[in-house]
Specification:
This protein is an alpha+beta fold and about 160 residues long. About 35% of the residues lie in helices and about 40% in strands. Helix 1 packs antiparallel against helix 2.
């Protein structure tokens, strides 16, 4: 049947996104266990703030009814939204699910009337960065940081919608 993309937003969906982020980034990119904890805290804070409001949300990629990926969209104010928490489990890679999650959240941002969309990432994510570049995002800023137990080139990308 393949991977299906659905609109989410429940506590279970948010927990799945945090869990998937930890399962992907800790072993594959050498992030400390604090990475998954930080993602869980970020998402819990979003939920406590009343997220998702109109124009915000999350999308879940499912394979055989199991969450294998996700992404969030958050309003930052002044016409700016953030694409965040994009992660895809290994078993869903190569199916087009990552690209579909990306396209879905960009289209949702356009439909919500945002002027710009930003995302934060790091330079090791070569495949994801290529999707962002092909999708029209431009690298705006980069800085060398130590985060989650390792050195990173932390990047801010932006897309004019």
């Amino acid at each position: 049947m393949g991977v299906q993309i659905r609109r989410g937003g429940s506590a279970d969906d948010v927990n799945a996104i945090a869990r998937i982020n930890g399962e992907v980034f800790e072993p594959e990119y050498g992030m400390a266990p604090s990475f998954a904890a930080d993602m869980a805290v970020q998402l819990a804070e979003l939920r406590r703030s009343g997220w998702p409001r109109d124009g915000e949300g999350c999308w879940i990629a499912e394979l055989d009814g199991r969450a294998v990926g996700g992404v969030t969209l958050r309003d930052l104010g002044h016409g700016l939204a953030r694409l965040g928490h994009l992660a895809l489990r290994r078993e869903a890679r190569g199916t087009g699910a990552g690209r579909r999650l990306f396209d879905t959240v960009v289209e949702a941002a356009r439909a919500a009337g945002y002027e710009r969309l930003e995302l934060m990432t790091f330079s090791d994510l070569v495949d994801a960065r290529e999707i962002y570049r092909r999708g029209g995002f431009e690298l705006i800023a980069s800085e060398h940081v130590v985060r989650w137990g390792r050195e990173l080139e932390w990047e801010r990308w932006e897309l004019a919608l």
